[in-house]
Amino acid sequence: MSLYQDCILDHYRNPRNHGTLLRATHRASTNNPVCGDKLQMDLIVKNDIIEDARFSGAGCAISQASASLLTETLKKKTSADARAIKPADILKLLGVPLSPNRLKCGLLSLETLKKALNNKM
Questions:
Q1: What is the pLDDT of residues 54-84, one digit of tens each?
Q2: What is the pTM of this model?
Q3: CA atoms of 50 and 26, how far apart (whole Å)
Q4: Which of 77, 88, 96, 118 is the most exposed, fewest CB within 10 Å of its CB?
Q5: Backbone dihedral angles phi then psi of residue 70, each to the nearest 5 degrees
């Protein structure tokens, strides 16, 4: 199985929820200094429900596809459900095994989400 399977390439070339939210209630940025990937995640959380999620940044196909896939799953989740997302859940979304060097790329979106949930604007 190719690391850059069709789903990952589709989300990389046509990212879902890419951009920023002007009225974000939560926001965080992270980066992977090893490869240079950078992500920002903006959330609108009302009554403990994630109403919208967007990401921006630049990086490899894995990090960008991971952020695109994750933001698709966040809408209408509670903050508690979002906090409960585990690395294995992200790897399942990506659908391909990641080498140890690519694991940080794949999990950067989850790290950014967890920081955003703890960073109320």
A1: 999 999 888 999 999 999 999 999 999 999 9
A2: 0.90
A3: 10
A4: 88
A5: -65, -45
